[in-house]
Structure formats: C-alpha cells, structure tokens
Amino acid sequence: MMQTVSDNRILRARMAAITDVLSREISNDIIIGIGSGSTVEMLLRELGKFVRERGLNIIVIPSSYQSHMIAIAEGLRTASLYEYSNLDLTIDSFDESDEENNVIKGGGAALAREKIIAHAAERVVYVADYAKMKKVLSMPVPLEILPFALPHVKNAVKKLGGELKPRHGTGKCGPVFSDNGNMIADADFGELKDPPRLEVELKQIAGVVENGIFANVCHVTYVGQQDGSVRRIEWK
Question: Is 114 one of the catalytic residues?
Fold first, then answer.
C-alpha cells in the first residue's frame, strides 16, 4: 500500500515526538511501563537503539504480547508487575485526546493492562501525532467485557445513551478478545460531553472489566506537529 503525503507527515510527527520523549524522559536505572499500538511499536524500536547506544540499564513492563515480543526483539530487559509493582514511568499513546487531559485508548484491545500500568506509575507520558488531538472526543469507547455479560452490558450501555457493538477482527473470524481472554466491544456515544463521568459510569456496569476512557491520568503529552516540532502539554 502506497503512503500518502499525509501519512508521511504523521509518521514524521510521531517520530519527532518519540525522539523528544526519549531524550527528556529516559534515564539510567528506571522501570518503565510500556503501552501498546502502532505508535508504541515505533517507540519501542527507538528505545532499543537509545538504550544500546548509551549502555543504559532499564527494565520494561509491557502491557501486551505485542509490546513484550517487540521489547525482547530489541534486546530490552522485560519483567512483570509481580516483580516490580511500582513503576517510575509509563509511556503510552492514545487514539484520541481532547485539550482537558481526557483520552480514549483501546484500539489495540490492551486497554485494561494499559490502565493498570498507568496507575502503577509515578509519572505517565503520552506520545502522539497532531492528528490524534481533538476538540471533543467522539470515537466509540472500547470496552473489555466478560463474554457471559455481553447482553447485559449492551442493555446498560443503551441506557447511558450509547450503542455497543462487539469488535470483529480482520485476521480472524468472530469477535476480538484481549490478552486477558475477554471480549472487546466498542460503545458509540457520539461526542462525549463529560468523559470523566462516563468513565466511572461504564466502570460500574457489571461485567465490564475496563473501559477505554483515561481521564486525568497523564502528566505530560508529547504531540508531534506537521512541521516537525513537538508540542509538550504539561497536565500536572
């Protein structure tokens, strides 16, 4: 598939943000939680080079099989929360972010583990490109659901004003399941008027393991711009 000019700009913007994150956030002897997705895949490959070139000693806690395999391929030392339950830093990306530190994550179906490593870290950093920044969050909210509970969750989401659809994979028949063995579905609410409130309401539905709204979790967001510059948003 040929890349468009827009695609190339987005990739350059992501790389600019990743480079800035590595230079500002990575130091020796730290434990880092790592998210999942296409941007994080790029980051992990650059992190591997960064660590090798500087001889750094870091430990990576991956949030998914995808991130775990890439980290190993890059020669990074990996571990789990069972070994290191308090993380110095978590680096991740997102699908959409507004200007009030609310993001939607979970396009890669790793939302539950990503939220866990975010809350386990002293500092949370997001890296993204300009196309992911929105005035209002509006994409469907990913949910990780116990398969048995799907009909109930669908009814509960409807009462909240949304429409729930199980996610179907492109490389397999049937619904998508998380690394935890739970079903992934997407709840469409249109524009989200109050993301923090909706995060809590979705979390309270019996059978919902986690939802993809991350409200006021991040400390700093690095956003690569079209011109190659990086916008740093300090949230807290």
Answer: yes
Please give the mean pLDDT across all residues of the chain.
96
Q: Which domain holds residue 148?
A: 141-212
Average pLDDT over residues 73-101: 98
Q: Whole-model pTM?
A: 0.93
Residues 123 and 153 in one domain: no
Write out the E strands in the chain: 30-34, 58-62, 77-78, 89-92, 96-97, 102-104, 124-129, 141-145, 163-166, 183-188, 208-211, 213-215, 220-224, 230-234
* 153 shares a domain with 205: yes
Is residue 23 domain-shared with residue 127, that is, in the same domain? yes
Strand-by-strand arrangement of the 163-166 sheet: 163-166, 183-188, 141-145, 208-211
Q: Which amino acid does the sequence have at 125?
A: V
Residues 221, 185 within the same domain: no
Residue (of 226, 209, 195) closest to 146 by Cα position: 209
| 207 close to 192: Cβ distance less than 8 angstroms | no
The helix-helix angle for 38-54 and 65-73 (nearest 10°) equals: 30
- In angstroms, rounded to a whole number, what is the distance separating the alpha carbons of residues 77 and 57? 8
Please tell me which residue in 114, 144, 199, 210 is annotated as part of the active site. 114
Q: What is the pLDDT confidence band of residue 2, given thresholds at 50, 70 and 90?
A: very low
pLDDT for residue 1 is more than 70? no
Q: Are residues 182 and 221 in the same domain?
A: no
Which helix or strand (DSSP H or E) is residue 155 part of? helix 150-159
Residue-level pLDDT at 5:
56
